[in-house]
Amino acid sequence: MPHGDPVILEVEPAQVASTWPVMHQLRPHLDLDQYLAAVARMRATDGFRLLAASVDGKVGAVAGFRTMEMLYCGRILSVDDLVTDESMRSKGLGKALLDWLTAEARSLGCGQIHLDSGLHRLDAHRFYERESFKKTAFHFAAKVDAQGRSP
After folding, report:
1. 3-class DSSP assignment, residue 33
2. What pTM was estimated for this model as a whole?
3. 3-state secondary structure at position 81
C-alpha cells in the first residue's frame, strides 16, 4: 500500500520501459517493443514527452503529451495518454499529473490543455470533469488505406 506523496518526474528515454506496465492498461493493442519504438519516434518527430507519477518508487500513473498550435484555439498542451494503474486509483496520482501538466502548460505559454478520452471511459470522464475539464467537441476519425477512406 502506497504511503508517500506522489513524485512526478519527466521520463528520460532510458526509463520509458518502466512506464510500460501502467501504459499497457490504456494501450493494450501495443506490445513493449512497439511502445518503446513509438515513444522514441514521437519524441524525435512530434516533441512527445512522457511523465510518470510514482509512490514509494512504484510507477502508478503515466501521461504522454506534446504542445501544438491550432488556428481555432492557439497554443495548447495536448495530452495523448493519461492512465493510473488500476491498483492505485483514487490516491491522487492522476490529479498530481494534471497539476504538473497545468503548470507546464502555463510555463510554455499554452492557453489550454486538451485531451481526448474514449467514449467508454466513463470513470475517466467524471475525473476530468471534477478537474475542471469541459466536453467541448466530438472527435471524429476515419481509417485510411491505400485506396482512401475505408469503412
Report:
1. helix
2. 0.90
3. strand
